[in-house]
UniProtKB/TrEMBL annotation:
Protein name in the entry: Tripartite tricarboxylate transporter TctB family protein
Domain DUF1468: 9-140
Transmembrane helix as UniProt keyword: yes
Keyword line: Membrane, Transmembrane, Transmembrane helix
Residue ranges of the TM segments: 12-33, 39-58, 70-88, 117-137
Originating species: Aurantimonas marianensis
InterPro entries in the cross-refs: DUF1468
């Protein structure tokens, strides 16, 4: 199998997910509250995902290297963080769990510990203030605020 074909297959799968997000989000309705409704965020995810998928299909990497062993461990760690994160939100609260996850992801992506921790704190607490306080979307505060 051509390596270019593997990029195109990945692009097709991601495009299918983007279309699914868009369609599934159309079924979210709320009788009150936010005029944008709950479908806004999934659709905001679907658009860049669909554009990225289309880019992979149209312009695949001419010579992708799928596995570079020192980097594979970072990718496994990222997947582990992204799997554990949703389960940590409720018991630890959104700000703390998001701060920790964002800091660890930033560190894996090459940031220093100081940069990663600062990034995590800004993302975790910034998103909490944005969504919970400004947009009125209740998020679990956890032991810090609750």
């Amino acid at each position: 199998m051509s390596l270019r074909l593997s990029d195109r297959i990945a692009g097709a799968i991601l495009l299918a997910f983007a279309i699914w997000y868009w369609i599934a989000a159309g079924g979210y309705v709320v009788a009150y509250g936010d005029p944008a409704g709950p479908s806004l965020f999934p659709r905001m995810v679907a658009v860049p995902l669909g554009l990225f998928a289309a880019f992979l299909i149209v312009k695949p990497d001419p010579d992708p290297i799928w596995f570079r062993w020192p980097h594979v461990w970072g990718q496994i760690a990222m997947l582990a963080i992204l799997v554990i994160y949703p389960f940590a939100i409720e018991p630890t609260g959104f700000p703390l769990s998001t701060s920790i996850a964002a800091a660890l992801l930033a560190r894996i992506l090459g940031g220093t510990w100081l940069q990663s921790v600062l990034t995590g704190l800004v993302i975790g607490f910034g998103l909490f203030v944005l969504f919970d306080t400004i947009f009125g979307l209740p998020l679990p505060a956890g032991p810090i605020f609750g």
